[in-house]
Amino acid sequence: MKWTLSGVLNIVLLIAVCILFYLHFHRNASQPVQQRMADSTSAVQLAYVNIDTLQAHYTYFKEKRAQLEAQQARMEKELQQDAQKLQQEYNQFQQKAPTMTQAEGEAAQQKLLQHQQQLQAKQEAMRQQLLAQQQAFQDSLQQELHTFLQRYNADKHFQFIFSYAGGASDILYANPAQDITRDVIDGLNALHAGK
C-alpha cells in the first residue's frame, strides 16, 4: 500500500482533532459543576420581584383592588335586588294565575320571560364591564412596572428581572440577594404618592 502525502496529512489532522476533542471535554468534565456554571453565567446579572409581596405592599395596587372589589359588591347587590323583584313578580303571577284568562296568563309569562332575559343580559354586561376594568388595571399596572423597572435598571445593569410568586412560579429557587422587591415597592409607592 502506497501512502500519499494527502493521505498522511489526513491521518495527522484526524489525530490532532481527536486530541483537541479529548482535551476540550476532559478539561470541562474535570471542572466542578458549580465552577462551570459560574464561568458561563458570570456576565449575566439577574434579579427578581416577588409579586405576592408587591401586591401586599404597593399602595396603588391595594387601593385599586379595593375599588374593584367594592364595585363588584355593588353590582352583585344590584343584581340580587333585581332577582328578588323578578321572584316577587313570579310569586304574584302564581297567586293570580288561577283567576287569569289564558291570554292574560300567556302575556304575564311573556313579561316574566322578558324580565328574566333582561336580568341575564344586565348580569352579562356587568360581568364584561368588570372584566374590562380588571384587564385595564392589569395592563396599566404592567406598563407602570415596566416603565419603573427600565428607569430603576439604568444603573443596575440587570439583563433579566423575573417575577416570582410563591407556589405559582416556574422559578424553583430564588436567592434572596437578588430580590429587588423592596426597592420596587418603595419606588412605585413614591411615584404613586407624587401623582
TrEMBL record:
<keyword id="KW-1133">Transmembrane helix</keyword>
<dbReference type="GO" id="GO:0050821">
    <property type="term" value="P:protein stabilization"/>
</dbReference>
<dbReference type="GO" id="GO:0051082">
    <property type="term" value="F:unfolded protein binding"/>
</dbReference>
<feature type="transmembrane region" description="Helical">
    <location>
        <begin position="7"/>
        <end position="25"/>
    </location>
</feature>
<keyword id="KW-0812">Transmembrane</keyword>
<protein>
    <submittedName>
        <fullName>Periplasmic chaperone for outer membrane proteins Skp</fullName>
    </submittedName>
</protein>
<feature type="coiled-coil region">
    <location>
        <begin position="58"/>
        <end position="125"/>
    </location>
</feature>
<dbReference type="InterPro" id="IPR024930">
    <property type="entry name" value="Skp_dom_sf"/>
</dbReference>
<dbReference type="GO" id="GO:0005829">
    <property type="term" value="C:cytosol"/>
</dbReference>
<comment type="similarity">
    <text>Belongs to the Skp family.</text>
</comment>
<dbReference type="InterPro" id="IPR005632">
    <property type="entry name" value="Chaperone_Skp"/>
</dbReference>
<keyword id="KW-0732">Signal</keyword>
<dbReference type="Pfam" id="PF03938">
    <property type="entry name" value="OmpH"/>
</dbReference>
<keyword id="KW-0175">Coiled coil</keyword>
<keyword id="KW-0472">Membrane</keyword>
